[in-house]
Specification:
By secondary structure, the chain is an alpha/beta fold. It contains 11 helices and 13 strands.
Amino acid sequence: MIKLRRHMLGFILLAVLILGFNNEAWAHKERSDGYFSFINPQGEVFFQTALMVSLGDEFIAHDNRQYCVSKLDGDNAHCEYLGPASPAEMVRATFSGSESSAVSSAAARSSVIGIYHTHSDESYVPTEGTASIFGQGGIIKVGSAFKNALLKAGLKAVHDTTPHDPHDAMSYTRSRRTAAQLLKQGSVALFDIHRDAVPRELYVASVKGQDVTKLTLVIGRENPQVKANLNFAKQLKDLNDQENPGLIKGIFLTRGIFNQDLFDRAILIEVGTHENSRPAAERGISLFASTLPAAIGKQGLPAKTQSTGATQRTGSWSAVVWILLLVTVGGVIYLYLATGSWVELQAKVKHFATREFQELRGRNRDSDDTN
């Protein structure tokens, strides 16, 4: 029985170490040697990204057609068409100066938007002369432009410029603390601002007479909050499709978590690519910011979310449940291998439970006698 207990304790400790220190559980890698091309059933390229791509990843294109990666062939991700993407649960109306828009703006004025940068080195070659500046990349100035545009739109914003370099597999582990601190400051939406690494023309757009970069919204599909985060991304895309047509390139659902398990309105945004100019990226993110009052105001945010960060705790507990589930399943498999058969496993578990119950009764009886 002591040996069985040791087996169980050893497995739990091993699982905690793996989940706690293996960053693959929390984020996904990026390529430094090129990019992937998404190909539709007609053989046409409709999306490209430097983020790693896996089977089962999905992309909602600018026209709301949804695709799923069904085959990987080198740099090519062949996709099947899933049909039109389901609409967001709360469809937004256009800005019309109506009473509902005024209510939305009033509700949004007390909301705080959190902004940070997991890859704080990312830069724009035409402006900075390099694609990477350790700890002080041009992407931080894009975040500042985002904050200023939010303030101009009547929202509160906190821009955390903490560097999380080097740009490696542990970046999201380091930025997790920053994201958590922003939530403690009352953020009702959280944006991790990045830029992509694909050819310039893929992100070039003209919106409202301005030369801007397009934006891609990225959701980690292994994140327990994926459903809520995806719905928020769809709401943001809906609003920008109405107000800033052509600005949103699409929504990419990829492997990883990107710290989005912390909150149900957390989005990673790719603002242009390294070959775009930073001013174009700043103009793009500023147009995006102009739609946030309607998005936040129409959320119908409960008071407890604004004052106590209850949603953050919900996200954390969801992650804990997933970890416990993995530990439980892994424990059963481990004990099966250790005992050699299901019959022996059941016998040992039954014996273990019976003994624990008897010991508990004995302790309770001793306690009663003492009292």
